[in-house]
From TrEMBL:
Swiss-Prot/TrEMBL keywords: Repeat, TPR repeat
InterPro entries assigned: NatA_aux_su
Keyword presence, Repeat: yes
The species this protein was found in: Durio zibethinus (Durian)
Coiled coil: none
GO CC terms, sorted: cytoplasm
Protein name as catalogued: N-terminal acetyltransferase A complex auxiliary subunit NAA15-like
C-alpha cells in the first residue's frame, strides 16, 4: 500500500470496515494520523466517516456496547461543533463580518440535516 496516497488508503479502510475487518482497518487508518500510532487521533480529528463505519461494523457483529459508545462519541462531535458556534456569534459581531455571520446561520439550518448527523 502506498502510504503517500491518502485517497486510495482511505477507500481501502472504508472497504475493510464494510467487510467487518475493524481491527485491520484501525491499524491501517492510524498510519495516516499525525503521530502515526495513536488511535485517539482519529477521534480528536473528528473523523466521522471512520467512526460511523466502525460503529456500524460493531453493530453488525452484535457488539452493541462498543457500538453505542462510539455512536455517542460521534454525537458529541456535533455537540462540540454547536458549542463552538456560540463563540463565532460574538466574533462576527465584534469583527463586523456580516457575510461570514450569514453563512454561519445558513450552516446552522443545514447542520442537523447532514447525512452523518441523521445516520
Amino acid at each position: 500500500m502506498d502510504l503517500a496516497d491518502r485517497y486510495i488508503n482511505s477507500e481501502s479502510v472504508k472497504r475493510m470496515l464494510q467487510s467487518d475487518q475493524v481491527a485491520l482497518a484501525g491499524k491501517t487508518a492510524i498510519l495516516f494520523t499525525k503521530d502515526g500510532g495513536q488511535h485517539n487521533n482519529l477521534h480528536d480529528m473528528q473523523c466521522r466517516w471512520y467512526e460511523l463505519s466502525s460503529d456500524e461494523s460493531y453493530f453488525r457483529h452484535g457488539d452493541f456496547g462498543r457500538a453505542l459508545e462510539k455512536f455517542i462519541a460521534v454525537e458529541k462531535h456535533y455537540a462540540d461543533i454547536i458549542e463552538y458556534q456560540f463563540d463565532f456569534h460574538s466574533y462576527c459581531l465584534r469583527k463586523m463580518t456580516p457575510r461570514a455571520y450569514v453563512g454561519k446561520l445558513k450552516f446552522k439550518d443545514w447542520f442537523h440535516s447532514h447525512a452523518y448527523f441523521t445516520k
